[in-house]
Amino acid sequence: MVRHALKAYSAHPAHVAVADGKVRPNVAVRSCFDFEVQTEE
Questions:
Q1: What is the DSSP letter of 41?
Q2: DSSP string for 19-35
Q3: What's this model's pTM, rounded to 2 decimal places?
Q4: Cβ neighbours of residue 19 under 8 Å, at least 6 residues apart?
Q5: CA–CA dist 3, 9 (Å, integer)
Q6: Cα 24 to Cα 7, 8, 12, distances in angstroms
Q7: pLDDT at residue 1, rounded to an integer
Q8: Which residues have a Cβ under 8 Å from the Cβ of 30 and sit 6 or more positions away?
Q9: d(Cα 17, Cα 19) in Å, to the nearest integer?
Q10: Residue pLDDT, tens place only, 1-41
Q11: Alpha carbons within 13 A on the beta-carbon side of 17
Q12: What's the half-sphere exposure (Cβ side, CA atoms, 13 Å) at 2?
């Protein structure tokens, strides 16, 4: 996923609704990360 797509996804209303309504109320601690994989071509 390219960086601008990730920014759009993370701020998307449907994504935020799930995070606010399902994830955050049910976890005490959470962490996430994004990474890029570079392949040799």
A1: -
A2: IIIIIGGG-S-------
A3: 0.61
A4: none
A5: 10
A6: 19, 20, 16
A7: 59
A8: 23, 24
A9: 5
A10: 578 888 888 899 999 999 999 999 999 998 888 888 888 87
A11: 3
A12: 2
